[in-house]
Design a protein that fits this description.
316 residues, 10 helices, 12 strands
């Protein structure tokens, strides 16, 4: 995620969220295969709703919304031991699909290709812990600030910050991003953790830059840190907290310092697909009001990031 200013959550809320996430910590972290698909069967789909009436005719006819997602980011989206796609996003997708009268079909892809997949119409939506930022809305490269595409619209559905974590009992004095100067960090490529590491490295003095090693997905970055190939890792807070609670039975990692850059996750829709955007926004508002959204957020123990309305392009 990317925000123009750094915002830190209160320690009390952060600690409460960590403890709550432990409820979901019995599931194992598993890697995912390439381009696998998982359709959430909405057998109880509503026949009609205000949101469903907003859907584009071609999607209504197909009865399926194709969702691009990097399905290796527990607890937000990942494969369980049976190979099923599970997590916060798939559960929300199933609820949205029921409201819209269609099936949300999650298709696996690497995170940094999801927006391209929207432009090429491979996916109808991208739902993958993607932070709503002005750069992504406007199709601007966050590093070069050059226009690289048409951009996307976001329906915001969750809030999360970014955390640093280390091997348990081996924090090497790392508490803040500035403490990473002269050290190596493992991150998922194209994420806000990646952007933050690059930005912080430019501030380092005395020739002690941050060595940044990037990976296709977050689980690969965790493996690198676990093996001693890096000094620290960084992920969105819910993901980092889940890894701390579950990896090695809670013996592998620890979070250091506080989460920063709190910002909204958004469901991305290609520019020009206004009808689909409005339908998804209306469906999200409906499940928030019905209480179904709250049940899903509570199930995964991430109440601290819940939203109370479906905002459009609320990122900065």
């Amino acid at each position: 995620m990317t925000a123009s200013t750094t915002r830190r959550t209160a320690a009390k809320s952060r600690i409460a969220a960590v403890g709550a996430i432990a409820v979901a910590g019995t599931m194992l972290l598993t890697a995912c295969g390439d381009q696998t698909k998982s359709g959430n069967n909405n057998s109880g789909r509503t026949k009609s709703s205000a949101a469903a009436d907003l859907l584009p005719p071609e999607i209504k006819a197909k009865g399926v919304i194709k969702v691009g997602s990097d399905i290796a980011y527990p607890p937000v989206e990942f494969k369980d031991k049976s190979g099923e796609t599970v997590g916060i996003d798939p559960d929300l997708g199933a609820a949205l699909g029921k409201e819209l009268g269609v099936t949300f079909q999650f298709e696996n892809g690497t995170f940094d290709t999801l927006i391209t997949g929207l432009r090429s119409k491979r996916y109808d939506l991208a739902m993958s812990s993607m932070t709503d930022t002005k750069d992504r809305q406007e199709g601007v490269d966050s590093k070069t600030k050059k226009k690289i595409g048409e951009g996307v619209d976001f329906v915001d559905y969750f809030n999360a910050g970014v955390s640093i974590y280390t091997r348990k009992g081996d924090d090497q004095g790392i508490k803040t991003w500035a403490d990473l100067c002269g050290k190596k960090i493992a991150v998922q490529r194209g994420t806000v953790s990646h952007d933050l590491a690059e930005a912080e490295s430019k501030k380092c003095t005395g020739g002690k830059k941050i060595a940044i090693e990037t990976f296709d997905n977050d689980l690969e970055a965790q493996t690198r840190l676990r093996s001693g190939g890096a000094d620290a890792g960084s992920s969105d807070f819910p993901v980092a907290a889940y890894a701390v609670k579950t990896s090695g039975g809670g013996k592998d990692f620890q979070i250091v310092g506080e989460q920063v850059e709190a910002a909204p996750y958004g469901i991305a829709v290609a520019k020009g697909n206004d009808q689909l955007t409005k339908a998804v926004q209306a469906a999200l508002d409906a499940i928030i009001k019905s209480g179904e959204y709250g049940k899903i957020i509570s199930k995964w123990g991430v109440e601290a990031g819940a939203v109370t309305e479906a905002k459009l392009n609320g990122g900065s």
